[in-house]
Amino acid sequence: MRPDSAQSEAEWRRRAGPLARGATRKVKLTRQGHFIAEYPVPDAIKNSQERRWLEMSKAAGRTEFTHVRYSASTVDPNEFTPENGWSLRPTLYGRQTELLIACTSYNEDKNLLARTLHAVMSNVRDIVRSKSKFWSGGIRSKEEGGGQGWEKIVVALIADGLDPMDKGTLDLLATIGVYQDNVMKRQVDGKETVAHIFEYTTQLSVDPSPALVVPQAGNEKANMVPVQIVLLIKQKNAKKINSHRHLFNSFATQLNPEVCILIDVGTKPGPKSLYELWSCFYNSPHTGGACGEIYVMSKGGRKLINPLVAAQNFEYKMSNILDKPLESAFGYVAVLPGAFSAYRWKAVQGRPLQQYFLGDSTCKDAIVSPCAEAGARMYLAEDRILCFELVAKANASWTLTYVKTAKGETDVPEGVAELISQRRRWLNGSFAASVYSLVHFWKLFRTKHSILRLFFLTVQTAFNAFSLVFTWFSPANLYLSFTIIIMLLPDTGTFIFYNEIITHWVNKAFVWIYGATLALQFVLALGNRPKGEVGLYVMSFTIFGILAYYLLVCAVFLTVKAFTNISFADAPTLKDKLIDLFTGTNGVLLAALASTYGIYLVCSLLYFDPWHLITSFPAYIAVAPSMINILNVYAFCNLHDGGWGTKGSDKADALPSISSTKDGEKTQIVEEVLQKSEDLDAAFKETVRKALTPIKTVEAKEEPSAEDENKTFRTRLVSLWLLTNGALVVAIADANGLNTTSAEQSKKTSVYFAIILWSTAGLSLVRFVGSVYFW
After folding, report:
1. 705-719, pLDDT tens digit by residue?
2. Highest mean pLDDT among 48-57, 226-235, 570-579, 664-673
3. CA–CA separation, 503 vs 511, rounded Å?
4. Quick one: average pLDDT of 645-651?
5. What contacts 143, CB < 8 A, 6 or more positions away?
């Protein structure tokens, strides 16, 4: 389901094209020929601002509360510099920016935008009104820039293209004064506009209900503080990494902030979460990057009825309890999620950003050679390459950390097609970036990290390498675990289906069903998009879920049988009894139980957050096999799909082009129609009505797209993956046709299981130690 907020072509041309009537004015282009102009905001917006800010702004000769500033940027983000004649209001006003908060979007609707932007503005209010002397105007603040606290914060909204952008969001942005219709220009003197930039400082907000939130007289503490907002709408869709290039190379280069916070539209930062992220950098000078805890939006638990949502909730929770604390203890968090993370600006300058932006196809240094396709894969998970390059930055000692007190709520995919498509990018990017970090591990020794830090980073690299190998063989290990456990059941005298013969053949049938369903995933992944085969994918998730619970039942029977068969007849002392209990098969089973259920329970209780074990663990058990057999297979089989897709802009055709004329000898001017005040106010009322109208949803129907031709790299890697996993299955299951005795096969199986379970226990123990250390 997606919002039906797309307007008719006629409606878009009305709001995008030039005005039919109004007063004509002459706008001077800058000395470099740039179109930068200011437009008065509707009286309703201007009069809603607190009077003290209006008076202060007027006294200083500033127009940030009365006019929206528009710049038609016709240059690459790297060239958006003061030297080239481009500017932003905070720099024009001589303000020192401490915090740059960027919210990136693609086609999110106005509800998601309101959810994020309102939470961000509330956080800005919390920061400015905190007890910190830095923000409240104390002595320390004056030494580091002085001025009002809100003047040190800039919020950048970056929309990835006019075509995919939900036009309903423009109504919301116009309601708070940040955007105006009939202002954008498609071309300036024949040069195509790359980005449309609006700037306005506002106290107005729209909450998710949706309702307009305006300052109330006599309630200053609850009112929003003024927020400096910069809206950048790219004329063409160029992917999220390009949005970050606009953020860092256009905005951060000019504003020179101390900290940049990245948020995806749709993510809702919790109260004071942005303050917690900023404090991490302020109190720790060696922190180069940080992330908060992202948790699943469950709407009071109602969404957890969906097993896919519940499984993702468990996955997020355990990552926040086990993985992130461990990585933070080492000093290198492998993934600072682009949806909710922060970087110190001076830490990412130089090589980290240079390497990061190689994945931007619009950048002149982008990876374009076919032989570099493997390297390009890592940029699908843009947050990972930046993390490694930051920690491995030469002659520096930056670390990455996890801030548990900074929380962000996000919406997760609720259908199988959306989940598969999302994880395709995540898994491919994660795999490529993991290999990249291992191959370039030696770069850590060019840094200025302490000997102790380098030791722990080396340990972490070894841990990551072992985990990567374990992940590579996960399909084979899962298949072998399933087949061996359920086929062992009749040998122990346990017959779930009446007698040994029926149990044996039912188990055989389950093995065949498992194999056939797994084989089906390759057929689907190589030939179809998830949205084209939703029914088969739902069936596959269901089959693997049923088989997962059958495997759990069989494992419980085998475990109970193993422990009930212990006689302790030859163990007279307590020491002998413990040796019998923890050696052989019993020790392996105990290690497996402790490394999964035990660590989940203990760590969740340590962090006083155990509820996901009740609400989400049952669903996770059912979905976990599909995460390996469906999501991993689809991701690897679609390695040729290098990104989100980039296209031109049909919507930009509706925008007017402008040509300048000479006024005198050198001055270039443009004539445009300026909307009359009464027309502006009348149009604003209609805009507010549309912005506050709840959106309707319709089923999104997408036509299948043509299959990409260049699949050589994908075919080779998938073949290698299949061959190595198949070789492991053959080696363990003895499917090579050789005559192997029952004792030899049993010994081989026991050794294999001991290796797998003890490895799992070892990995879990490392995560447990890291989690406890962080706690």
Report:
1. 444 444 446 545 665
2. 226-235
3. 12
4. 47
5. none
DSSP H stretches of helix in 284-404: 307-318, 324-330, 345-348, 351-356, 373-377, 382-391
Helices (H), 144-296: 168-175, 240-245, 253-255, 273-283
Element spanning 153, H or E:
strand 153-159
Question: pLDDT, tens digit, for every residue of 77-111?
Answer: 999 999 999 999 999 999 999 999 999 999 899 99
Q: How confident is the model at residue 489 (pLDDT cuts 50, 70, 90)?
A: confident
Mean pLDDT confidence for 347-375: 71
Spatial separation of the C-alpha atoms in residues 365 and 440, rounded to whole Å: 20
Assigned domain for 155 exists = yes
pLDDT above 70 for 576: no
Overall size of the chain counted in residues = 775
Contacts of 630 (CB under 8 A, 6+ apart): 420, 521, 537, 540, 541, 544
How far apart CA 642 and CA 136 sit, in angstroms, is 47
Dist CA 12 CA 552 (whole Å): 56
Q: Is 230 part of a structural domain of the chain?
A: yes
Amino acid at 163: D
Q: What are phi and psi of 372, to 5 degrees?
A: -95, 15
Of 761, 775, 401, whose CA–CA distance to 604 is shortest? 775
| Angle at CA of residue 586, ends 583 and 588, nearest 5° | 85
Q: How many domains does the chain have?
A: 2
For 288, the enclosing helix (H) or strand (E) is: strand 287-296
Closest CA to 683 of 71, 25, 44, 12: 44
Which of 254, 283, 312 finishes a domain?
283
What's the rounded Cα separation, in Å, for the pair 553 and 550?
A: 5
Strand 36-40's sheet: what is its strand order?
Answer: 36-40, 67-73, 195-202, 227-234, 153-159, 99-105, 259-264, 340-344, 287-296, 399-410, 268-269
More confident residue, 744 or 291: 291
The C-alpha R_g of the chain, in whole angstroms, comes to 29
Quickly list DSSP for 398-431: -EEEEEEEEEEEE----SHHHHHHHHHHHHHHHH
pTM: 0.86
Of the candidates 93, 30, 345, which has an alpha carbon nearest to the alpha carbon of residue 228? 93
pLDDT range class, residue 315, cuts 50, 70, 90: very high
- For residue 62, is it within any domain? yes
Give the separation between CA 170 and CA 175, rounded to whole angstroms. 8
Cis peptide bond N-terminal to 210, omega within 30? yes
Confirm whether 355 is domain-assigned: no
User: 3-class SS at 292?
Assistant: strand
Which pLDDT belongs to residue 401?
96
- Report DSSP letters for 14-27, one per residue: HHHS--SSSEEEEE
**In which domain, by residue range, is 593 found?**
473-642+710-773
Residue 674, pLDDT score = 76
